[in-house]
Specification:
The N and C termini lie far apart (53 Å). The relative contact order is 0.14. The longest helix is centred in the first third of the chain and has 19 residues, at 2-20. The chain is globular, with a radius of gyration of 20 Å. The chain is built from 1 helix and 10 strands; from the N terminus they run H-E-E-E-E-E-E-E-E-E-E. The protein has one domain (33-187): Calycin beta-barrel core domain (Lipocalin), CATH 2.40.128. It has one helix at 2-20; strands at residues 50-58, 69-78, 83-90, 96-103, 108-115, 125-130, 136-141, 150-160, 163-172, 178-187.
Length: 188
């Protein structure tokens, strides 16, 4: 009798614990799902959720583009469906990721980036939003090598159920001067 009660109470505890976090990745939803109480903007990344095969290319010192590197980019909902996390696994061994949270008060995304190529004291962060034309654009203050004030701008574009593109660019404060430094093309 005691063992039956113990088993029943353990099952109830497990069931309670699971339902409490039902938006986390699971067998049914391997990349999680948006929490019903989360800001609707979490769906901005809905088409990116899952694994994608990508080609990543960045500028070399001479200004030419390096040969593209194979990369897997995985997006999933975390924190019980109230944030988005992504992870890149690159064929060259350089891996990175981000935690993406939407703040309803500012109507902005805040993105914190980390990488295997260096461990900073504090994580660099970008902020931005989804535009009316479907792009997700994020900014971080960054001076050009010559000292000109500007931003490093990250843009997700051409987003569809079959893939998306991403570009990292230095732009001046007016966004009239644009210098792409990194680009990624992904297929779902």
């Amino acid at each position: 009798m005691k063992s039956s009660l113990l088993l029943l109470s353990c099952l109830l505890c497990f069931s309670f614990g699971y339902s409490q976090y039902e938006n986390e990745p699971s067998k049914e939803f391997p990349f999680g799902k948006v929490h019903p109480d989360a800001p609707q903007q979490l769906k901005d990344f809905q088409s990116l959720i899952g694994k994608s095969k990508c080609k990543s290319s960045s500028r070399k010192q001479d200004g030419s583009w390096a040969e593209a590197i194979d990369m897997q980019w995985t997006f999933k909902y975390i924190m019980n469906g109230k944030a988005v996390q992504d992870e890149t696994l690159k064929a060259d061994g350089a891996h990175s990721g981000s935690i993406r949270q939407f703040n309803a008060d500012s109507s902005k995304w805040y993105v914190h980036y980390y990488s295997s190529s260096g461990i900073p004291k504090t994580l660099p962060s970008w902020e931005g939003a989804k535009t009316e034309d479907g792009k997700i654009i994020l900014y971080r203050d960054q001076k050009a090598p010559n000292g000109t004030e500007g931003f490093y701008r990250l843009t997700f574009y051409d987003i569809s159920k079959t893939g998306y593109k991403w570009i990292g660019e230095w732009v001046d404060k007016t966004e009239k001067v644009v210098y792409p430094t990194w680009k990624i093309d992904c297929e779902k």
